[in-house]
Amino acid sequence: MEWQKSLSRIAETKGRRFVQVDFSATPYNDVGAGKNKRKVYFPHIITDFDLKSAMRAGLVKSLVLDRRKEIGALPLEFTKPSAMSRATRP
Question: How far apart are CA 26 and CA 5, in angstroms?
Fold first, then answer.
């Protein structure tokens, strides 16, 4: 992986002062197919904290669906921002 190669090059000059922290959504590769399919975790993974647990703990954003009919019935209006509104954005 190019990303890992780049991090390794950076780490070479830092010695023991370099720490890589990876918060990957999928800390593994799927290997095989069918009944032989399995997860091969990246070698630097300490724990696999699944999404459901992370949501319950409030560590990630939660999906909220608005089921109000009046909101869903509103027409969508897509307009191109004016030059003035683009200039005033932070």
Answer: 19
